[in-house]
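ok, trying the design again with the full structure, not the truncated one.
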């Protein structure tokens, strides 16, 4: 956690992003014509080339929200409006059916989190629901309490490489972190999930248009996924540009 969070000097810099930008990374719906960017194929690393002959099935890594503006199947970046009331954020990893010569080593996992924006801050839920091996918020899912529940001021900088918030119960932990992107105008919103059988990092990549201000849409770039199996093997998937 950031002990003394700095004030953001811009929406995105080499050191991090503003909470305003983080808020948009959470509440913007991926446009219908960009849904393919949530379909990840096996790669040499999170940022590496996709394998020409993958041994693992592709993985769908969607994020969505319960917001009314998200109800249409034909959303586009142009009609984005920022959330002003509480909503539920969802992020998932769902392996596709393996093709010939492939396996599906990944268990499905789902994250559900209440998010409450205000005029001056972003409040992340006091608990996060995590479901591994079962459907979202289904029997068998677990509510993990937050390590802290401090509102995040919109003008605060969220540093790359720092944990924004952690939820856990001792044997299971979920972390929200931000990482820099592959270009100066990109940032990654990442979820790090640790359970007895799951050691996973999934990241959503967003590009920040020049002159961006709160209320403007971002450009979705793709997803990245890392899984460490029970024998210590690391597997990777990615999508996008």
């Amino acid at each position: 956690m950031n002990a003394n969070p700095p004030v953001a000097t811009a929406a995105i810099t080499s050191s991090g992003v503003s909470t305003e930008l983080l808020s948009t990374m959470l509440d913007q719906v991926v446009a219908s014509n960009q849904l393919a960017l949530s379909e990840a194929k096996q790669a040499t690393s999170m940022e590496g080339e996709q394998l020409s002959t993958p041994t693992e099935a592709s993985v769908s890594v969607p994020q969505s929200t319960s917001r009314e503006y998200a109800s249409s199947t034909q959303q586009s970046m142009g009609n984005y409006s920022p959330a002003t009331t509480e909503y539920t954020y969802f992020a998932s990893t769902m392996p596709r059916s393996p093709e010939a010569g492939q396996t599906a080593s990944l268990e499905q996992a789902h994250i559900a989190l209440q998010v409450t924006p205000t005029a001056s801050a972003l409040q992340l839920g006091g608990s996060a629901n995590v479901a591994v091996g079962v459907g979202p918020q289904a029997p068998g899912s677990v509510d993990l309490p937050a390590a802290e529940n401090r509102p995040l001021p919109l003008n605060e900088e969220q540093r790359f490489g720092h944990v924004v918030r952690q939820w856990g119960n001792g044997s299971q932990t979920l972390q929200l972190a931000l990482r820099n992107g592959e270009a100066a105008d990109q940032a990654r919103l990442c979820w790090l999930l640790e359970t007895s059988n799951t050691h996973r990092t999934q990241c959503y990549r967003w590009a920040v248009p020049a002159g961006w201000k709160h209320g403007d849409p971002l450009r979705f770039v793709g997803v990245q996924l890392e899984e460490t199996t029970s024998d210590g093997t690391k597997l990777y998937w990615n999508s996008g540009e």
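Keeping the full-length input from now on. The helical segments are 19-27.
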